[in-house]
Write a structure and sequence with these properties.
- By secondary structure, the chain is mostly beta strands.
- The protein has one helix at residues 3-8; strands at 13-17, 20-23, 26-27, 33-37, 57-59, 82-83.
- The strands form two sheets. A four-stranded antiparallel sheet has the order 3-4-5-6, with no helix packed on it. The chain has a two-stranded antiparallel ribbon with strand order 1-2.
- It has one domain (3-83).
C-alpha cells in the first residue's frame, strides 16, 4: 500500500480535530492492524499536513512488531504507544 494514496483518499479520513485530520486504521493481509497518521502534530515528514510524506507516525499495532521497537515512544507498552 502507498500511504500517500491512503492519506489522500477521503474515504480513509475519520475526522478532523482542529487542524489535524485523523485517518482510519490500516489492516494488513496477515491481520496486523495499526494507526498511521501524518499531520502537523504527528511524527512525520513533512509536517505540513498535505504531503507527500517520506515518513509517517504509526501507532497502536494490534500485536507487538519487533521491527518497530527502535521507534517506540513507550517500549514497555508496544501495542499502546506510537512509533515515530
Amino acid at each position: 500500500m502507498n500511504l500517500n494514496l491512503h492519506f489522500q483518499n477521503p474515504s480513509n479520513h475519520l475526522d478532523k480535530r482542529g487542524d489535524f485530520r485523523r485517518f482510519k486504521r490500516i489492516t494488513c493481509a496477515d491481520g496486523l492492524t495499526f494507526s498511521a497518521q501524518a499531520n502537523e502534530g504527528a511524527y512525520c515528514s513533512p509536517r505540513n499536513g498535505i504531503g507527500p510524506w517520506v515518513s509517517v507516525e504509526i501507532g497502536f499495532p494490534s500485536v507487538a512488531v519487533e521491527e518497530f521497537m527502535d521507534y517506540a515512544e513507550n517500549p514497555e507498552d508496544p501495542t499502546g504507544t506510537v512509533y515515530g
